[in-house]
Specification:
The protein is α/β, with parallel strands linked by helices. The chain contains six helices and five strands. α3 packs across α4, α3 runs parallel beside α5 and α5 runs antiparallel to α6.
């Protein structure tokens, strides 16, 4: 079954070894960006350098619309025959937002609430980055539905680092 695996940075090597993803999305600050893991094809590793801020004026390198455009373009090249690995520093905010964006794009219009509820039910710790979600909502023409669905699930359970979480692309 096609699925996305969301992990913190600390679990990336183990998840690659156990699940053999075909694609990796890394969302880290420019100061902490990693190289492509040894032996993994560079053209199937998307590295998005941004800080985990929700106000564009609040810090250097906030999530921008161009980040989401690049994410969507990359995710659309994924055949979903093998898993996709999405990670950030803690597996809580940027990676959960990216996964939500990919799910909404793959599942189509009207999937916003279903995908948000899947995020919450599978990842009680998830707190998707609202700025990334807002950019995706604009790009995908969802008229605020993605933003509202994420707002409706509320903040996640406070943890220092998330667990490895699997999101199937069907039957969320």
């Amino acid at each position: 079954m096609p699925h996305i695996l969301v992990t913190p940075l600390s679990a990336v090597e183990n998840v690659i070894r156990l699940h053999r993803p075909s694609h990796i999305v890394t969302l880290l600050s420019p100061d902490h960006m990693i190289d492509t893991p040894a032996g993994f094809p560079k053209d199937r590793h998307l590295r998005l350098a941004m800080n985990d801020v929700v106000d564009a004026a609040a810090g250097d390198t906030p999530p921008e619309q161009a980040h989401v455009e690049t994410l969507l373009s990359f995710a659309r090249t994924w055949s979903a025959e093998d898993p996709m690995l999405v990670h950030c520093w803690a597996g809580i905010s940027r990676s959960m937002a990216a996964t939500y964006i990919i799910l909404c794009d793959r599942l189509g219009r009207g999937s916003e609430v279903l995908a948000a509820r899947a995020i919450r039910s599978r990842a009680p710790h998830a707190y998707p980055n609202a700025l990334l979600v807002r950019h995706a909502d604009d790009l995908l023409g969802r008229q605020g539905r993605m933003v509202e669905a994420i707002r409706a699930i509320g903040a996640g359970k406070m943890v220092a680092e998330g667990d490895v979480v699997e999101f199937p692309l069907v039957k969320l």
